[in-house]
Structure formats: C-alpha cells, structure tokens
Amino acid sequence: MSKAHGTNEADRSVGTDHRTASMNVPKAADHQVTIAIAGNPNAGKTTLFNALTGLRQKVANYPGVTVERKEGRWRFDAGLEPARLIDLPGLYSLDATSLDELLAREVLMGRMKDLPKPDLIIAVVDATNLERNLYLVTQLIEFSIPVVIALTMVDLAEKLHLEIDADKLSEMMRIPVVSVKARSKSGLEEITSAVRKIVVEGKEADPFWIGASEANEPSDEIHLSLTDNEAANRQIFARYNFISDVYQESVRTSDSERADISEKIDSVLTHRFFGLVILIGILLLVFQTIFSWAALPMDLLDRGFGSLGEFVRADLPPGVFTDLLVDGVIAGVGGVLVFLPQILLLFLFISLLEDTGYMARAAFLLDKLMSRVGLHGKAFLPLMSSFACAIPGIMATRTIENRRDRLATILIAPFMSCSARLPVYALMIAAFFAGQTVLGIVSVGAVLMLAMYSLGIAVAVVVAFILKKTLLKSPPPPFVMELPPYRLPNLRTVIQNMVTRAWLFLKRAGTVILAISIILWALMYFPRTEPAVSGMGAEAGQKAAHLESSYAGMLGKSIEPVITPLGYDWKIGVAIIASFAAREVLVSTLSIIYNAGEDEPENSPTLVSAIREAKHADGSKVWTPLTALSLMVFFVLAMQCMSTLAVVRRETNSWLWPAFMFGYMTVIAYAAAFLTYQGGKFLGFS
Amino acid sequence: MTLANLAVGSKAMVTRVAGRDAVSKRLMEMGVVPGVWIRVIKTAPFGDPIEIRLKGYNLAMRRNEAESIEVSE
To answer: Which of A238, A245, A311, B22 is most buried, most CB within 10 Å of its CB?
Structure first.
C-alpha cells in the first residue's frame, strides 16, 4: 500500500468555496519550524507525539490557565534544526466554546506569546471513526497552514471491514494523507517525508471554506434548531454534509452496523448489575493499592531518609547548620519524596483506565450518582483516591474536562479522611475510648472511626452542592461524552504519563513543600535557649522546654484564647501548627511536648497516659473525651496539610484557590469543633 | 418525539437539534446532525445517562441533552 498521497487540484464543488491563499509560506530552514499536532481525544495523538519526540518533551501550562501545553523536539530532517512539536489538547471542534478549543485556536492563529504561528499541522485522524474525526479537519484547513492527515488505527479499521481509499481521501480533502501505525512505528518514515516535502519545498497551504450553500441546505423534513445559534448550526450541518460525501467516496464498508467487540465487552462492563460490581471491584483494587501497597515503599523512603539524617548528624559537628540540614532539609526532601509511590501507582491505574477506554465507562455508570451533588461522573475516582491521600487524588482531577466541575472536585477532595489522619484518630481513641463498647458488642472506637469518615463525606457533599449553586455556578455543561472503543494500552504512553506526573509533582509542588517544611522547622527551632535541666530524662525535658520557648510555642500560646472554646490549650495549639507539615506530625509533636520521647507510636502507653494526666495550671485536666472528640472533628475538616495546598496551587495555577480552600475549611473545622465541644458541654458531657 | 423517549435497541433518524445553544452546538459537532441515523444502545444503571451509536461510534449523554434531539423512527 502506498502511504503518502499527493494532493489534487481538482475543484470539488460540493458546497466548498475555494479561495487561493498565498499567505504563510513556510520558508525552508531559515527559521525553526513549528508543527502543531491536533486531533480528537482517543485518536492516537499522544502515541504519535511520543513516537516522534521520544523523551525530548516538556510539559508546561498555557499562560494563566491550567490547560497543559506539551511540547517536544522532532528531528524530522537531519540537515535542519529539530522542529518544535506542539501537542494541542484533544479536541472535537475548534469553535472556541471550551477553554481547550479557545487555546488551540489561539495557537493556530499565532496569537500565543512565545509561540510562533505553526508552519504545519499534523491532523491525527482515527480511521475507525472517520466522519467525526474529519469534522475537526474541516476546521483545521481554514487556518491557511498546510495540513497533513496522519491516519491512525488503520489496522483496526480493516478488522471492522472499513476500507479507506487514502488517495481519494487526500484528493477530496486536498491535503496529503499518511497511514500511521505509531505502535509498530510503521508510517513514521512516510509522515516525516510528507512533512519534509512541505517544509523544504515551501509548499503553500490550500485552504478552503465549507459554507452553507444551496446544496447543503437541509431538506424539508429535517430542521435545524431555530435559535440564535442557527448560523453556526447550519455551518456544522454543512461541514457534516461535505464529510458525508467524502466518506461515501473514499470508504467502502461491508457491515457497518455489526456489533463490534467493544459493544460485547460493554454488555458486561456497563451492565446494570455486573457493571457496577466490576466497577466496585476495580475501585477497591485501586484503593487497596494506594492505601496499603504503597505503604511499603513509603516506609522504606521514610526510614531511608531517617537513616540518612542520622548518618549526616553523626558525621557533622553539632550546631544550627547540622540541625537545619537534618531536621529541615533532609526531613523535608523525604517528606516530598514519600508521596511518589502513591502518585506513581495511582497514575499507573489512571493511565491504564483511560487508555483502555474504561474511565469513560466508569463515568457513565456513576454519573447519575455524582450529578445529584452537581459533580461529574469522573469525579468519583479522584475523590475515592483522596481517602488514601488528597495529593494524588487532586492530581487525578485532570481527567475532568470542565473547569468548574474540576475545581469543585478539588475543593472538596481534602474532606475525604486520608491515611495521615488515621494516627490522629487512633491516638485519641486509644487515650479516651479504648475498650468501651456500645450495645455490648460494637467498640466505640470503630463507631467513632466510621463517624469521622462519614462526617467528611457529608460535609463534602454539602459544600459541593453549595459551591455549584454559588461560586462555581454555571449552566451545567452538556454531558456529551464519547465512549471510545476498548483498546490495549500502550505501555510506553502509560509509563511516560506516570513519569511526567511524578516529575511535575516534584518540580512544582515539591519545592513549595520543601520550603514550608524548612519554615516550620525554623519556627520550632528558634530562638535557641541554653539547656537548663540535666540528669535523668533531661533530654526529653529539654526538648519540651525548648519547644515551649520557640516561635511555634509562642504562636501556640498566642492562639490559645482562640482555641480555648474548642477545648484546646497552647500545647495542642503548637501541635496543630506543627501538624501543618503533615497531619500525623500531631502525634510526634504531642510526644515531644509531653516529654514522652519523640518517636512514640500513636498507641504508646507513655504518650497515652501523659495525655490523660496533663493538667491545666488550676489542676483541672486538659484532656477530656470531649476534647478528644473536638480535636478529631477538627482534623476531619481542617486544611491541615501544606502538601495539599502546594498541589492545589500547582493544579489551579494560582494561590487564590489554595488560600480560599485553607480559609473556608478552617472556618468549617473551627465551627464544627466549637459546636462539638460547647454543644457537648451544654448537654452535660465532659 | 425526542431521543429521550426512544426505547433501548430502537433506531431513529435525527430530524432536529434544539436546546440551549451550547448543548445543540456540542451535539452537532459530535455528529448528531439532522439526517443522521442513531441507535439507542442502553441506559446506565441508575437510568441516566444513555448510550447511543451513530456514525460508527458510541456516545453517552444525559437525558436532559437527549430531550433536545428530535427523532423520527
């Protein structure tokens, strides 16, 4: 089969308006060539992009927005500077109704800062879904930029008995058509030479406009919507009419309505009953993986950095610098890297679920459930992942296309009780509710645990509902979602996606997390005091005394009036401030402050009894079961996690949303803890 | 009659696409244009969204959107 097909000047009169355009002639090799890759989602765009660029790619955001801009270098000609290859977001249309479409249009019109108008567009067209894919091409050819069609999935089309006459297609669309199998690398040579030919020979674009002409008027029995949009709708209709002609001339098919493999798979996977059972199974597997299987590598990282710290401390003279290096920098870097196992594993699953086509099915199955609170079906997986950790969960929201839906999901994700809250719940339960039961059999601890998880979910539902009615109010975006055919995932694309996510986390969020860890360390370290106590147990006593006189201690004391109504004293205040680094730090900070030794586990008898025995100046007990309950409620709802804020900053590309998130969650947490403590006292509990 | 009234398994031709501008436009861009034949594949477990097949591919939409597509069998 010949792979590259020339264009034909024959003027097709099917409602097309052919204007000769002499603008934008790419001058061979006198400047760096910019090439844009455009195509529908699931058309094989990423696979082709990866095949052409290899590892020479970088991901950034378009200025001021959260849409990702993927760019790579492509050496399409040995004698020329490698081309800048821009991977546009997956698009169905260029009508600028969505942000993705608007940005793609800006790129193609050369209106992007630091990005010249592309010299060429590679239009990725899925051969198994030719008509809808060609719709975008009918828009791309209007930009006076030469277009080359990369026809993907040709082998799959053959299996579906779709025979595509690439020469005819090329003739009717008036642009070169190249069949590509990016996986087996076949066709890459051909696309390279097609591109080289246009660039080196300085071939002109041959734009034509498909208008609503006589031939394209809908016949009497069918009507277009009579709205303000009528002109636009007529235009769409005309394009599809043109495409219909192209399709009829260039595609031969024997049985198009044959139920394909995907439909057979779907008879199980989106089945009313089995579909849900399998979905729950898959979600459980994902959850299990990031919740418990990621624990081993996380533990290793944690211990590795612990030993590294000890090793460095042993080798360096004691002093501020060593303490900064060990407790600030090394502990901070460890605190960043510890998230990597979860992120890598979650994105392994997300890539697999997306690339196989299952993600759209999961959204299809769950959409009704999620739409009740105004969320998209795709919000389910990110929210569930947030029970393990909100960091990968929030990163996973990028599968939700609509910006407002995505923001709403990000803003409620931290209400899901993550694994870092478990040590806090466990300590409180061990100290005040251990061994108690309700109705003689159910342990109070289990009930409380369930109550904390439910509280988080309930508040999330209410907040999502309110957000969608107020701040993120918008006419519901049309829920029109392709259910792409099931396909085997491309291992390389999957791995590349995992690596990209991990790298972006380290680069963008990691630096912020590291900076805040060092600030928190300094707050608890300075000002230095002279050791006053000596003898047995002196070290622990010193540490506690030091923490009390540190800036963090002062801060804790200064917020005491504010947190007294919640039942907390300044020591708990210090622990709350310190646990901003990570919620579980509450346990180790309380250990230090109560002289129980730094590395006590959450059920340590020393720590538990120290908490139980702690007394106010007047001799009354600091902690009561009600205090513990109030603190648990506070931890369910408060935004006590700098890493989450750093990731929200990265994902929303602004400090505004993390600031809003911190503010509103703290207010809700304070109010709920206040109600718990004061309400409990009012009802006579202690 | 609208797409929302069609029974699972039935085939029909789209005669008109109405509805809010954003909705009708998006639907038409996806190929749901007057004159095209569609087939209703199934409804999701909770009754919404629905899945249809047209132009050789499968599309899911909420009943809300389906109501703006007029069809004749």
So the answer is: A238
Domain A16-20+28-253 class in CATH: alpha beta
Task: Please write the tens of the pLDDT for every residue from A214-243.
Answer: 455 555 555 554 445 677 788 888 999 999
Buried b (16+ CB within 10 A) or exposed e, A610-634: bbeebeeeeeeebbbbbbbbbbbbb
Beta carbons within 8 Å of A239's beta carbon, 6+ residues apart: A135, A138, A139, A210
Closest CA to A154 of A188, A129, A171, A189: A129
A439 contacts A620 by C-beta, under 8 angstroms: no
Residues 6+ apart with CB under 8 A from B16: A222, A223, A224, A225, B34, B69, B70
Of B19, B33, B64, the CB nearest to A237: B33
Q: Tell me whether 0.90 is exceeded by the ipTM.
A: yes
CATH number listed for the domain at residues B3-72: 2.30.30.90
Kindly tell me the sign of the dihedral angle through the C-alpha atoms of A73, A75, A80, A83. Answer: negative
Of A70, A123, A75, the C-alpha closest to A100 is A70
CB contact under 8 A, A480 and B61: yes
Supply the DSSP symbol for A482.
E
Please say whether the beta carbons of A35 and A84 come within 8 A: yes
CB contact under 8 A, B46 and A368: yes
Nearest to A47 by CA among A351, A346, A261, A262: A351
- Residues A431-479 pLDDT 10s: 898 888 887 778 888 889 889 989 999 999 999 999 988 888 877 667 8
B2 in Cβ contact with B71 (< 8 Å): yes
What span, in angstroms and rounded, lies between the C-alpha atoms of A282 and A289? 11
Residue B61 contacts A where some CB pair is shorter than 8 Å: yes
CA closest to A255 among chain B residues = B56
Binary contact (B21, A227; C-beta < 8 A): yes
What residue has token string 């997390």? A513
Our CA-based measurement puts residue B38 at a distance from the nearest CA of chain A, in whole angstroms, of 11
The CA angle A316-A322-A325, to the nearest 5 degrees, is 120
